[in-house]
Amino acid sequence: MASEQKITIYNYNKDNYSEENASFDECINYKDKSGITWIDVKDVNNEQLLEKISNCYNLHQLVRESLLEQNKRSKIEDHGNYLFILLTTMSYSAETDEVFSEAVDLILGDNYIITFSHGTTISQILEPTKKRIRTEGTRLRESGTDYLAYRIIDALIDNYFNILKSYGEKVEILEEEIFNRGEKELLLHIQKLRRDMLSIRESIWPLREVLNSLQRGESRLIRPETRIYLRDVYEHTVQIMENLETSRDITASMLEVYLSTVNNKINEVMKVLTVFSTIFMPLTFISSIYGMNFHYMPELTWRYGYFAVWGSILIVVFSMLAYFRKKRWF
To answer: Angle at CA 223, nearest 5°, toward 218 and 226?
Structure first.
């Protein structure tokens, strides 16, 4: 019974709507049912279930293999009677401060859509789309499967904007900390930020190619009126790519600023050490002279010799300090 709760079927048209948790046997009843059917499969690790669904809808062997793959990359395949669209998205966990990849395998047919969710947050991402299905009078209830596919793709794309917003805030915080602290941990944060943005870029890049193919209208399953919406989603991917490039440039500048700040601190330390070394050079010279073991050194028997040496040392020290201060070396 546990696996039965991992298939949700939505069937709807302009006037009617139904939603139920179902087993595979109940899925078969919806194959030729009137209206639009969305079969949302969450139990993607159940190979037996995937095989049954694949057989029921005559999915190609390559599609079946793609459903079982662990490392996903966005792509689109036209199999005539249906489209196989593999969609990836990225999610961010504030608790672990990590981004992770998730994916949806989407089968688009004439009157049905099957989605296989790979990830823990996919249901949450697609919840606004499900609410539109439940609401009577929405464009989604009056449109076909291609528009439903558009709404699913749009939800996954919009999720990237949420991640970019979070990372934009992190960039602002790091910029302030670089100037205020410049600690070593900041370098690790900057490097992690750059790696995460690279992962996001690698995820969104093939998605753009998928959307470009869809909005060009190469499949009969995508109606002309839906291509307009897909073109809008394609522009969203371009915008995300531009935002990513901007953020990467900012993090590169932050890295340069951090290294410059560290070098400036090192230079300040070296300046102080150089000043002290320069001051002690004449003092060492004076001390070394009177540290020589000659029998005849007149100053050694002079009553005020000790005080004269100390006076010379203090004069040299204060003179050099005054000179360095005048030159603004410290």
So the answer is: 105
Q: What's the pLDDT at 3?
A: 40
End-to-end CA distance of the chain: 77
Cα–Cα distance measured from residue 157 to residue 104, given in angstroms and rounded to the nearest whole number: 12
pTM, full prediction: 0.75
Backbone angles phi, psi at 19, to 5 degrees: -145, 130
CATH of the domain at 104: 3.30.460.20
Distances (CA, A) of 214 to 67, 159, 237, 241: 20, 20, 13, 19
pLDDT per position as a tens digit, 256-304: 888 887 788 888 888 888 888 888 888 888 888 877 777 777 777 778 8
Q: Which residues of the chain have pLDDT under 70?
A: 1-5, 43, 179-184, 330
112-125: pLDDT as tens digits = 999 998 888 898 89
- Based on the fold, state whether residues 110 and 154 are members of the same structural domain: yes
Is there a contact between 77 and 42 (Cβ–Cβ < 8 Å)?
no
Q: How far apart are CA 263 and CA 246, in angstroms?
A: 26
Q: Name residue 35's amino acid.
A: G
Range of the domain at 315: 290-326
Backbone angles phi, psi at 262, to 5 degrees: -65, -45
Residues 234, 120 within the same domain = yes
Give, in order, the Cα–Cα distances in Å from 295 to each of 28, 261, 290: 115, 55, 11
Residue 288, φ and ψ in degrees, nearest 5: -70, -35
